[in-house]
Specification:
single chain, Beta Polymerase, domain 2, five-stranded mixed beta sheet, 7 helices, elongated
């Protein structure tokens, strides 16, 4: 809350919005850093440099932060654009970016249990699905898509990556937008 309020004070003149992305947003158990993207209206390098410096100084209470500029004129060409759309939080609007555009951002997971023993396959399935739909997937509001696949909100994906890692389960995932 303090971070948002402090950042919001900088949204004026040449700054359209400030986005927070990364592990802090995605429920990571131990976030490594804060990733902040500042959306500028114009590429006036002196103003951009001054603004980034001022933002950095005003949030000196935040450790391990990365602050990057993004420009309205080129934002659609930047790789970071989709990340902002899927997981970004808009300080200006006080909402997730996907909500602003009327979509929900999901991570669709596919996994393979071939490397697990039979008993560990059962244990993993119980951890994920539960015995009566009381496993992690349902506790986190996920949706089963069939054998070996499910989807969860992007903000929950880190929890499932950590589950797969703990069980040494091979998986892949893709992100998708879904309308209500």
């Amino acid at each position: 809350m303090k971070l948002r309020n402090t950042l919001k004070k900088h949204i004026k003149d040449n700054i359209s919005d400030i986005f927070i992305i990364g592990s802090t947003i995605k429920n990571k158990i131990e976030p490594r850093d804060f990733d902040i993207i500042v959306l500028f209206k114009e590429k006036n390098l002196k103003k951009v440099e001054d603004s980034l410096f001022n933002i950095n100084e005003s949030i000196n209470f935040v450790k391990n932060k990365h602050i990057e500029p993004l420009f309205v004129s080129s934002m659609f060409k930047e790789k970071i654009f989709l990340t902002i759309m899927h997981e970004g939080f808009s300080v200006n609007n006080n909402k997730k970016v996907s909500e602003i555009i009327g979509l929900k951002s999901y991570s669709i997971f596919s996994y393979n249990l071939e490397n697990l023993s039979k008993i560990n396959k059962v244990r993993f399935a119980q951890a994920l699905y539960g015995r009566k739909k009381d496993g992690l997937l349902y506790a986190e509001g996920g949706i089963s898509l069939g054998n070996g696949s499910f989807m969860v909100l992007v903000y929950k994906e880190q929890i499932f990556k950590e589950l797969f890692s703990a069980w040494k389960v091979k998986y892949s995932y893709r992100r998708a937008f879904v309308s209500d």
